[in-house]
Amino acid sequence: MYMTRQVRFDKKTQVINELIRRIESGQMSSGALLPGENLLAQEFNVSRGTLREALSELKRRNFIATQTGVGSIVTYDGFSLDQRAGWAQALADTGAGVRTEILRLVAVQRPDMEVRLGTSSLVALDRRRIAADGSIVSLERALIPAVDGLENLPQNGLLEQSLTVTMAAHGFIGDKGDQWIGAGPLNRDDAVLLAREPGTVFLKAVRTTFDRRERFMEHVESLLDPVHFRLHLAFGSST
C-alpha cells in the first residue's frame, strides 16, 4: 500500500522556487528589476533576512544578478533607494508611508537646456513627497523629452502614477547617466512648496539619465530633507 507524504518546504525554499518559476515562465523577463525587498518580504510573508538568503541563493545559481557600477546610494531613513525602479516605488519599498503629490505636468520649451539635453521641447513634471506625518520631505522637478507619445502626458497623465513605469511603457529604460548631490538654502518659492522657512538647508540632487540607445530620457532636480535623506558611499574591496 502506497501513501502520499506531504513534503514540507521551508520558507526560503518556497521563495526560491516561486521566483525561479516566474523567471523560467517568462513572467519576469531577462533584465527586469525585482521588486524591492520590503515588497517581496511582505508578499511571501517572510523576514527580510530570509528573503536575502533566498536572493543570495538565486544569485549563486545565476538566476539573478547584481547591477554593478553604482558607487553611491541615496537612503531614506536608513533604507537604500533603488533609483532604477523610480523613487515612488523605492520609497514605497521602505514601508515609510510616503505619498506623492503631482504639482505640475505640462509641455514646456526650454532653449536653455537644448545644448545639455539635445532638445528644447520637453514635458515638465513637478512633484513633492509627503511623509506619513504630513511633513513634506522632498520637491522634485523633472524634465523629459516630448517625443514618442510622451508629449501627450499632460493630457493622459502618468501610468500607475509612476514616471519610471510611464517611461518604460514608451520604450525608455534607464541605462546610464550621472548624479550630483550638494546642499544649499531654500529660496522663498521652494520654501513655500516645502512648508519650510526660507534659508532652510536642504540637500540638492541633480540627475540626468540616458537610455540604452543613448537617448536623453530624464533630467531631475530634487530638494531633499536632510533629516530623512542621506548619501551613502561604498568604497574598497569587501572581505
Automatic annotation (TrEMBL):
Keyword check for Transcription: yes
* Pfam families linked to this entry: GntR (PF00392), UTRA (PF07702)
The record ties this protein, via SUPFAM superfamilies, to: Chorismate lyase-like, Winged helix' DNA-binding domain
Q: Does the keyword Transcription apply?
A: yes
Q: List UniProt keywords, sorted A-Z.
A: DNA-binding, Transcription, Transcription regulation
Instruction: From the UniProt annotation, give the residues forming the signal peptide.
Output: none
What would you give as a GO molecular function for this chain, any one?
DNA binding
Q: For the HTH gntR-type domain, which residue ranges apply?
A: 9-77
Which GO biological process categories is it annotated with?
negative regulation of DNA-templated transcription
Name of this protein: GntR family transcriptional regulator
Q: Which organism is it from?
A: Pseudomonas syringae pv. papulans
Q: Taxonomic lineage per UniProt? A: Bacteria, Pseudomonadati, Pseudomonadota, Gammaproteobacteria, Pseudomonadales
